[in-house]
Amino acid sequence: IKKGESIAIIQFQYDYTCNFRCEHCSIERFRFPGRKEEKRSFTPKDVRELATQADELGLAHIVITGGEPLMFPDFDEIVAAFDPQKFYISSDTNGWLLDEKKAVHLKSIGVDKIQLSLDSLSAVEHDRFRGAPNSHQRALHAIDAAQSAGLNIIVQTVVTKQRVRSREFIQFLEFLNGKGVGVFVTYAKPVGAWEGNFNCLVDKDDMNTLRELEKTYNVFTHLTSAYGLDLGCIAVKRMISITKYGDVLPCPYIHASLGNFFDEPLKTIIDRGLNIKYFGNYVDTCLVAEDREFIHNIVAKKISGRVLPVPHNEVFAAEDFIKPSQRRLFKPRFVTQVLTDDLSHILNHTQPLWEELRGKRLFITGGTGFFGRWLLESFMAANERFGLKASAVVLTRDYDAFRNKAPHLADNPAIQFHIGDIRNFTFPDGQFSHIIHAAATSAMATFNNEDALTKFDTVVEGTRHTLDFAVKCGAKKLLYTSSGAIYGKQPSNMSHISEEYAGAVDPSDIGSVWGEGKRAAELFCAHYSRKYGLETKVARCFSFVGPYLPLDIHYAIGNFILDALKGGPIQVHGDGTPYRSYLFVADLTIWLWTILFKGQSCRPYNVGSEEPISILELAKLVAGRFQKPVEVRIMTPALEHQKPERYIPSTRRAQKELGVRQMIDLKQAVDSTLSWFASHF
Fold first, then answer.
1. Over the stretch 61-101, which tens digit does the pLDDT of each residue have?
2. Three-state secondary structure along 309-364?
3. In whole angstroms, what is the distance from residue 67 CA to residue 19 CA?
4. How far apart are CA 571 and CA 575, in angstroms?
5. 382-395 burial, b if ≥16 CB within 10 A, otherwise e?
6. 308: Cβ–Cβ under 8 A, 6 or more apart, which residues?
7. Count of CB atoms within 10 A of residue 374's CB?
8. What is the edge-to-edge ordering of all strands in the sheet holding 646-647?
9. pTM
């Protein structure tokens, strides 16, 4: 699956014979109107060839469906043709014909699992929905029969917008889970007999409701992570559906033929499907049940009302196809729940802002650093959640190194990379609406005592070159990530340093080159804004913590986390008296996007936490987050009567004018950071 070379499940519609007339049925149009019955259909011999090709592709799971499989006179022969020794074989059923004798027989011929349809605890409602009196009673009896025979069994149920939050649905889950039966939810879709019925469709909030229920009940959907991978929509990626007549569909509900099994190899057809952007890229929703754009542009416009299935070249345009190298089939395992929660936090507090990027292009420098990774993660998440259809170009000197660290970002089709140095990169073609200039010298270069003038030139000339590009590409807004270092040494009697403070770095101290460079870069921003009308937004950044923070350079909190993860001791290299403050990176990301979109041009904003903590207290806080005690060692004794240094911002301007604030306290921030690094250590 990871390589895009195989899928896991074939849903095989061997025959459309059925004894029910279900309200939502999707197969009526396949077997009656417009269908030439003389068209070739599967025989047991064809099934054996399908099994051979599926086995060569490494497929593992066959779901026999229809129609009602237990009505097929040659059902046993079909199971044998697939060979239960090679495949996990499931059978759909409505339960009408599944009694104790039949269940024992199915077990004996190699059927592994029963997928039984049940849509309500109410017999009246279920029987009405399935168009068969007494079908509810027989379905419940079928559950008992399957369990008695030792067959695995799940219940499949249709969930509409009206049902997902109902008391009936909760009782339904409780009843079936009480019998030891898991529940597979299929969302209502506007296809088949429900073609054009959009009132029943769920939205993302409804899906999130079901995800919460997954934490309490044994209930799942096709979006539930499997095999350690989050594949999102599994159409083609983990499932195909093959009709009686050999047409291969992306899923049972997207009635577009990717090709016909009788005309070309299965592998060729699957590859074609994976080269369609909707199926070759990770999609975090059900395309045909929730994605209104897909439903409107593909299902309603190109499939509904036509003879089914519709050939793929009449459904998908040339621009809908991607190259195999552009496939991004799954959400990587290292995008942990910590990051998922943090990204949700970011999007929940920036949602109204993203509309400004709809359909736009963004250029980012420093996109591979600590700030940049989070800006890209949140951009990618917003682009997918809100359907922005925005794109980003990221300047980098070493694409391969970044791809090794973050393949899910590097492979995202909305993100492209431009190779070059910040001081002299060639300007990429085209227009860009927004620029984020987060590049300077690398943190590692600073740690390795990079030449002071090189550092200064990189900051200043890199900013000027980026501003020249902003003018050329027609950008409207530019965010510059400056530093609290521009203020110089914070006076010991000043608890919090504000943007109005007129102090400066000491020009005779070579260690001031970073702050001096940032001051000069801010001057360039102001000049270009006044001369060219470019909105330049300045974020003066202080100290931060979170996933992706380098642990092995000059960041105290990163060093403490690394020491603790190694088992200690945590070494405080100074006397532990200086005061710092730390903003969690998810809050930082919210602040940066807000400043870009809402900040006043040429008006700098401090970004950081106002909550001071001494370096010694910080070390003890990190040590205290572990169950096993971690020792803290102070390497330098404190001098008497010496006032501690401070590096604490006042963020009143940003809070008052932009409505941002620190939402995640330091203990929670450290816990989240430790959790993430512990899973990658």
1. 999 998 999 999 999 999 999 999 988 999 999 999 999 99
2. CEEHHHCCCHHHECCHHHCECCECCCCCHHHHHHHHHHHHCCHHHHHHHCCCEEEE
3. 8
4. 10
5. bbbbeebebbbbbb
6. 29, 30, 34, 255
7. 24
8. 613-614, 579-580, 646-647
9. 0.56
